[in-house]
Structure formats: C-alpha cells, structure tokens
Amino acid sequence: MTILALHDLTKSFGRQVVLDHLDWTVSEPAIIALVAPNGSGKTTLLDIIANLGRPDSGSVTVLDRPNTDQSIYTDMTYMQSNETLFANMTGQDHIDLIQRSYGVPADRVEATVAAFGIGQFLTKKVKTYSLGMKQLLLIVLALLPQPQLVMLDEPINGLDPKAVQALRNALLALHQAGSTVIFSSHDLAEVDRLTDDVLFLTKGRLVAASSLAPATTYTVVLKDAAFLRTILPADQVTLLTPTKATVALPTEAMQALRQRLAGTDHELLDVTTSRQGTEALYFQLFGQHEIA
Ligand SMILES: Nc1ncnc2c1ncn2[C@@H]1O[C@H](COP(=O)(O)OP(=O)(O)OP(=O)(O)O)[C@@H](O)[C@H]1O
C-alpha cells in the first residue's frame, strides 16, 4: 500500500512559489519529521495533503485513495493549530466528539487522557486553556482514533518536558502498531530523539536528510590527533583533545585511513561513529538567519 504519494505539486501565493513540482512517496510506516525555516510552506503542504488547501497543480494520494475522497478521514487525522478548537466547548466535549465519530473504545480514551495528564482540565472551557493545554488537547484528539496516518503541525510547540516525553512515547507506540506519523517541528534536538527520517522542505521541494549526509562523523583516538590535519583536508578534522578528534569521511575513506595508519606511530586506537545531527544539516542547507 502507498501511504502517501505526492505528485508534481505546485503552489504559489502571488509571486511567491511555495511548492515547486514537489514529488514524494511514503510506502512503509515511518515517523517523518518535516523541517524548514519559518514561512517555507510546511503548513501549506500539510493542508494540501489533508485536502484543506488546493494545490495549483499536481495530485495527492493518501492510503491508496485520492485525497479528495472524504473516506481518507476515517484513517487519517491532522492536528492543525489551536485555532481549530471551539473556545466555548470543554476539552471533554471535544473528546466526546472524536470518540463518537471514530468509535474510539472508552479504555483507549482513558489511557490516552492519563498518558498526557490532561484529565484535570477537561471540564473547563477551551477559552481558559494555556497554549500548552490546547496543544495537549489537540494531540490527544489527533491520536485517539489510532489512525494509519497522523499529521501533526508543530506538536511540540509550548509543551513542557514531561508532555514532550508523553508525546514521544505515544508516537513511537503508534508507529510500532503500524501507523505513519508526519510532524513538523523547529525543535531539532527532539526531532533527532524521535526519528532518523527527516525531510527538509527547501526551495519548494522535499530533500531527505539521509541524502545530504554521505559522510559519517567518526570520533577517533590516536597518540597525536593533530597529525590527522597533516594528511586530511582541515575542514574534515576537528581536534577535541590532544589525542582525540572528529573526522567526517565516507565509510570507505575511513577504512582506507585505518589501514594506512595501522602499525604506525599514528595508529587509530579507537574509532566510534556518530551520525550528523539534524541541526548541522539544517545550517548546511539553510545557512544562518535565512528566511525562505
Ligand atoms: N492564504 C495565504 N495567502 C497568502 N500567503 C500565504 C497564505 N498562506 C500561506 N502563505 C505564505 O506561504 C508561505 C508558507 O507559509 P506556511 O504557513 O506554509 O509556512 P510554514 O513553513 O508552516 O511556517 P512556520 O514554520 O512559520 O509555521 C509564507 O510565506 C506565508 O506567508
């Protein structure tokens, strides 16, 4: 089954091109983070996938159906901004609505409400909620139906560390049960905790973080770490201590380096790998202070 297929999507607002012949396919359940600077089009893209916004051209398939087919909402939920909540209704009213519409079992409602610790304010009207309380309610509403595809627009915004942990656990559990999660976020440390599957929206197209990081960062230990600077380009070597450095190299080049130094005074005594973090890739792609 194709979970999501985006084909040749374009969208402009006036002269601003937000989506530019964008193609993407998701065919395996995954937790996917959508990352880009403010105003790049993340919400526009999620809205279009959910058929709440129209592309200028192109098509979207959700769970093997065109997204114009209303039946996709049985299997897909979308957490938008808190403006979608009803100010004069209580949290419980919102939950009842979702429970009835999706036939959510009572024990799942109870467990989800408990996991996110929102029980104590459900009897209050939403207009009295703080930003974090609204976020928690929105998250619970999106996750309750246990959809095959859930899209969350900036779910981490305004959450305290305990709530972030509850969200992380809930998303991992959903994924383990076979669902796909797509969420946008500016919290790149949290993104790295949740998933390796990061998509950058840049110049109207999606680029996988994995395609940007052909080099792996290795931490190496040797007698004289500065020696590495004499045999490798300077920008590939960062000295950490006199005997420790990080080296960014493709895997084969690292193997060749190890062989070359084996048995010499500069033998690599220890080598550990670490993948390049999303923040480093973000700055590589978008530079500093750039607004798309
Ligand atoms: N209805 C609209 N009319 C005109 N311009 C719009 C409209 N909706 C979005 N835009 C513009 O499209 C661009 C993308 O907006 P969008 O909200 O999708 O970005 P985003 O990546 O979600 O941003 P953020 O991270 O700040 O939430 C912005 O420049 C925004 O001003």
UniProtKB/TrEMBL annotation:
Sorted UniProt keywords: ATP-binding, Nucleotide-binding, Transport
Keyword Iron-sulfur: no
Pfam families: ABC_tran (PF00005)
Superkingdom in the source lineage: Bacteria
Residue intervals of the ABC transporter domain: 4-228
PROSITE patterns: ABC_TRANSPORTER_1 (PS00211), ABC_TRANSPORTER_2 (PS50893)
Molecular function terms, GO-annotated: ATP binding; ATP hydrolysis activity
Gene3D superfamilies according to UniProt: P-loop containing nucleotide triphosphate hydrolases (3.40.50.300)
Listed InterPro entries: AAA+_ATPase (IPR003593), ABC_transporter-like_ATP-bd (IPR003439), ABC_transporter-like_CS (IPR017871), ABC_Transporter_VariousFunc (IPR051782), P-loop_NTPase (IPR027417)
The protein's name: ABC transporter domain-containing protein
Naturally occurring in which organism (per UniProt): Schleiferilactobacillus shenzhenensis LY-73
